Amino acid sequence: MATLRHQQEKLGLDTFLRGLWEENPVFVMLLGMCPVLAVTNSTMNAIAMGLATTFVLVASSGLISLLRNLIPKQVRIASYIVIIATFVTVVDYAIQAISLDLYNALGAFIQLIVANCVILGRAEAYASKQRLHTTLVNSLGMGAGFTVALLALGTVREVLGNGTLLGFQVMPANFEPWVVMILPPGGFFVLGSWLLLFAYIRQRQDQRVLEKGGVSDAR
């Protein structure tokens, strides 16, 4: 079992694409729900949080992969948190310097990236066991999947809740905004809808695989 756990993964397209669909952090693994529900009341907030999380994920995973043979097992989790917190601090100051309005909109959720299960989970399950280039590609894919999920929620909530997209009016002038969409319950409604859609698509895929298998057995 130990040999399998530390087996080096061969770099391929699936290393990146896995985070977008098969192991999507939000729609499949249900990780990082706190920022997903809290900051997706607008598309811009969703993009900013997604990019910030992706940067921390890629940078911390890369450094952990480089140091994986030097970090003692007894303090590995504490070491991972220190590394992640370092890059979160960089992101925190960068966003604050770029836009105070965006920084205030994201609030404490920037600092809470430290406790994001997506990042700490990839550090423990993947980065601490894989080579640098494979880790970077996989982390980039997971970050992209997380960003796409945030964007999916943020776009729907902003369009239905404000009638705008990235601040530009996209709905007719007589459109009555669904105010609930930019409130906390709206996050649950939209997330539940996306999860239902993903579950349906995966069920259809599994059904097609079973049907193909049945046809092959019949032949």
Please explain how this structure is put together:
This protein is mainly α and 219 residues long. The chain has one domain. It has helices at 2-5, 13-17, 33-38, 43-66, 76-98, 100-106, 117-127, 132-162, 184-218; strands spanning 164-165, 168-169. Strand 1 and strand 2 form a beta hairpin. Helix 4 runs parallel beside helix 7, helix 4 runs antiparallel to helix 8 and helix 7 (117-127) packs antiparallel against helix 8 (132-162). The chain is flat and about 60 Å long. It starts with a helix and ends with a helix.
Give a summary of the structure in a few sentences.
The protein is 67% helix and 2% strand. The protein has helices at residues 2-5, 13-17, 33-38, 43-66, 76-98, 100-106, 117-127, 132-162, 184-218, and strands at 164-165, 168-169. A hairpin with a 2-residue loop joins strand 1 and strand 2 (168-169).
Determine the oligomeric state from the structure: single chain
How many strands in all?
Answer: 2
Strand content: under 5%
Structural class: mainly alpha
Distance between the termini: 38 Å
Unreliable runs, pLDDT <50, ≥5 residues? 1-5
Q: How confident overall, as mean pLDDT?
A: 87
Instruction: Compute the number of structural domains.
Output: 1
Order of helices and strands: HHHHHHHHEEH
The largest β sheet comes out as: 2 strands, antiparallel
Helix amount: 55-70%
By DSSP (H or I, 4+ residues per run), the number of helices equals 9
Query: Any idea what the radius of gyration is?
Result: 20 Å
- Outline, from the CA principal axes? flat
